[in-house]
Amino acid sequence: MADKLTLVAEHRTEFGKGFARRIRATDKIPAVLYGHGTAPDHIVLPGHETMMALKNPNALLSIDIDGKKTLSIAKDVQRDPIKRTIVHVDLLIVKKGEKITVDVPVHLEGESAPGTIHVLEINSLEILAEATHLPEYITVSIDGMEEGDKLLAGDITLPQGSELEGDPEQLIVHISVPRTAAEEEADEAAAAGGDDEGSSDESASEDDEN
């Protein structure tokens, strides 16, 4: 089983924005624990410990309520749009051996060929993996890739026991050479000229036929 982080929680008996503001002022976070056919359990989490635990994507959490521990992962984390502090957490109950669908961040490593740049089109992959062995991230190497090279979702080697849930044809990263505005304009002009030439040839053919 993956390493798990224990958070000691309390049952929440009051509700509403006023109560939520009061508990946040004491460095606590309102949350809800749900899943596996159980009724949602409204709880309060310790603020600092929760913030530190959720720095790890898809962290496995052991929620301790009155001595009873429940495994879960954070399914949704709501943050203050300005302060970026956590204001609410949805926790999904998980069991050892079951598989769940999660988004896992993509980390790039290595350097593409000299003079090229890489563009990361999608920064996470949707995968199916065992709930107690969720990867924190998926490493993708771009070392030595050259202009025009691409990596699709289906090209990426996933951690053992994980399966791709999204489109295997989804573009993840591609390599290109930076171009100046003048070069781009020249390419566009050349392409437009080619189209005009093609149109002229077609017109000439029509005239010959007539």
UniProtKB/TrEMBL annotation:
It holds the Pfam family Ribosomal_TL5_C. Residues 183-210 have a biased composition (Acidic residues). GO terms for cellular component: ribosome. Keywords: Ribonucleoprotein, Ribosomal protein, RNA-binding, rRNA-binding. SUPFAM superfamilies: Ribosomal protein L25-like. InterPro entries: Rbsml_bL25/Gln-tRNA_synth_N (IPR020056), Ribosomal_bL25/Gln-tRNA_synth (IPR011035), Ribosomal_bL25_b-dom (IPR020057), Ribosomal_bL25_C (IPR037121), Ribosomal_bL25_long (IPR001021), Ribosomal_L25_dom (IPR029751), Ribosomal_uL5_bac-type (IPR020930). It comes from the Bacteria. NCBIfam families: bL25_bact_ctc, PRK05618.2-1. This is Large ribosomal subunit protein bL25. It comes from Demequina muriae. The lineage of its organism: Bacteria, Bacillati, Actinomycetota, Actinomycetes, Micrococcales. The gene is rplY.
